[in-house]
Amino acid sequence: MSRASKKMRFFNLQILRQGIIALALISGFTIGSAVYGRLSASKLGSSARSPQTISRILTHIPNVASLTSHAKRGFRMDIHPSKPAPITRLAPRLESEYLIAAMATELNESFSLPEDIQFSLEDCDFPDAQYDDESHRVIMCYQWIDDMHLIVSHKLRGKTESRETVISLVLHALLHETAHALIHILKIPVTGREEDDADQFSTLVLLHQPDGARKALQVARVFKIMSQYSSGDPSDYWDEHSLDAQRYYDMLCMVYGRDSARNAKLVTNKLLPEERAGRCEKDYQRIESSWKLLLKPYAKDSPWLKQ
């Protein structure tokens, strides 16, 4: 009998459930009606599409269909047709597919891996983002993307801000679960909480993206939002993740530590306490140099991995 696979998740599922239930009571599960920027309603068509719609549209976006085809071993895309969904859900799902495919290409340009890691977008029984170490799959559930869109749209009223925040969150979650995959496949040593290491890797890569600091701050804001749904249940403390409030401050510290001059407002606006800010530059340098050292045997000529 095969052993049970180990699944590394992005959020404390108990808190996620509490957040969704709270919003259900407030809004009756009404999802915001904004349709993302360039993905207009006329392009996506009717309010419910056939299961193949998202993947079919994706193949018409230049260069996406063959993004990972050149890699002998590396990151692969596996998009499962989703069930029919309202048009307000199709837009963030489609943009997430494009984003994840692009990140797969970037990671393939950064690493040479001994085994494949599959990025799988699929329908799930429960909204989740996780790494399954038995199948080597990073699983992004369409329902998780839907729920993040619900939470963010409720808290952030601006359509553009909500859209950008959801996309930044999807990218951060993907990279977080990718860190679990790398730790598992490459047998990277972990001496503390693996979830914290995964957050640090994700934030590190995110900060090296165009406009990375803003993306990281958007994700940090979601952690702050999620912390408001914590009820003090014992699972908040025995869960393998740090508290969402801690993850919020940890991300602020990495943003500030990478470039304290450009992000000085985090301290002057009292978002990041001075007592913590004083250690952030050394903390960031330690995190970056540690990941560079650990990944050096597998790194290609990628700027963020160069010593």
Describe this structure in words.
The chain has 307 residues and is α/β, with parallel strands linked by helices. It has one domain. It has twelve helices and five strands. It has a five-stranded mixed beta sheet with strand order 1-4-5-3-2. Helix 4 packs across helix 6 and helix 6 crosses helix 7. The longest helix has 27 residues. It is globular. The protein starts with 6 loop residues before the first strand and ends in a 12-residue tail after the last helix. The N terminus is likely disordered.
Give the strand line-up of the largest sheet. Answer: 1-4-5-3-2
Order of helices and strands: EHHHEHEEEHHHHHHHH
Q: Let me know the average pLDDT.
A: 79
What is the strand tally? Answer: 5
Strand content: 5-15%
**Uncertain regions spanning at least 5 consecutive residues:** 1-5, 20-71
Whole-angstrom Rg: 19 Å
Secondary structure category? alpha/beta
Q: Which oligomeric form is depicted?
A: single chain
Q: What's the end-to-end separation, in Å?
A: 44 Å
Shape designation: globular
Share of helical residues: 40-55%
Estimate nothing, just give the exact number of structural domains: 1
